[in-house]
Structure formats: C-alpha cells, structure tokens
C-alpha cells in the first residue's frame, strides 16, 4: 500500500501562522484578506484548500455555523462556542469536562433512527460584552 506524503508547503505554513496570529474564529475570506497584505501572490483557492487540509491534519479547528461561512479556529482541541446575536462573532466557552456533557446528551437522545452518535457541536447564543456595552443592555 502506497503511503501518501503530505507536504508542508511554505504557503501552508504562512496560512497556519496567520490563523494563529489572528487568534480568533475567522472565515477563509478573512484569512485570505489578512494574507494579501504581506503575501499577495497566495491565491484565494490556495488559502481555502490549505485551511481545510490544516483542519484535516488537526492543526486548526473548523466550526460549522448555521447560515454563515465556516469559521476556522486557532485552537484545534474540541471545545464549545457562543455566538453573539448582534455582531455574529464567535467566542470560546470555558467549560469543564466536555466529554461528560456529550455523554449526558447522547444518553438523553431518543434514537429511533439507528444512528451511532460520534459527537456534537454546540454553539450557544448570547450578546457579547462589547455589543452589550454599545446597546446599553
């Protein structure tokens, strides 16, 4: 069986470093725009492709956000998020014992469809401190 060797290209390294420096939950387009400032020769397609490869390799996280573009996370470890209902930004949720939360949920699900549950993505909703301050809530 032939082993597939994934190359760590210069572009891939630049994209990974950019996501880490942005230290947030960013779309592929936001990463592309940031990279264009210092590396205008890296194409949009290269950024999108490499973000997905970096996710598959476990170097960054990817969050599917309903009705929005996927966000890429500088932190690859599984964790939960909260989305501001005003500005649409994602923030990390500091929660102990993620595994027990998922196990509790799996036990409580009525499984009439025969699924094998492998995990879940939870995005809480709320209003971030910045939006709360500006809206005087």
Notable characteristics:
137 residues; 40% helix; three-stranded mixed β-sheet; 5 helices
Write up what this structure looks like.
By secondary structure, the chain is an alpha+beta fold. It has five helices and six strands, in the order αβααββββαβα. The strands form two sheets. The protein has a three-stranded antiparallel beta sheet with strand order 1-3-2. Strands 5-4-6 form a three-stranded mixed beta sheet, with no helix packed on it. α1 packs across α2, α1 (10-22) crosses α3 (44-56) and α2 crosses α3 (44-56). It is globular, with a radius of gyration of 18 Å.
Show the helix and strand layout.
Blueprint (H helix, E strand, L loop, with lengths): L9 H13 L2 E2 L1 H11 L5 H13 L4 E3 L7 E3 L7 E4 L5 E3 L5 H11 L14 E4 L2 H7 L2
Parallel strand pairs: 4-6
Antiparallel strand pairs: 1-3, 2-3, 4-5
Helix pairs in contact: 1-2, 1-3, 2-3
Alpha-carbon distance between the termini? 61 Å
Number of continuous helical runs: 5
Proportion in helices? 40-55%
Low-confidence sequence ranges: 1-5
Envelope shape: globular
Rounded Rg:
18 Å
- Largest sheet, strands/sense/barrel: 3 strands, antiparallel
């Amino acid at each position: 069986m032939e082993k597939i060797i994934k190359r760590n290209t210069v572009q891939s390294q630049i994209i990974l470093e950019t996501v880490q420096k942005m230290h947030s939950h960013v779309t592929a387009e936001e990463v592309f725009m940031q990279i264009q400032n210092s590396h205008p020769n890296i194409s949009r397609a290269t950024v999108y492709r490499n973000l997905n490869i970096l996710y598959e390799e476990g170097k960054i996280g990817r969050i599917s956000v309903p009705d929005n573009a996927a966000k890429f996370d500088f932190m690859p470890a599984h964790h939960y998020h909260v989305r501001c209902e005003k500005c649409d930004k994602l923030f990390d949720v500091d929660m102990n014992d993620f595994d027990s939360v998922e196990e509790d949920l799996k036990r409580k699900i009525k499984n009439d469809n025969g699924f094998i549950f492998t995990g879940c993505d939870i995005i809480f909703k709320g209003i971030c401190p910045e939006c709360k301050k500006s809206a005087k809530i």
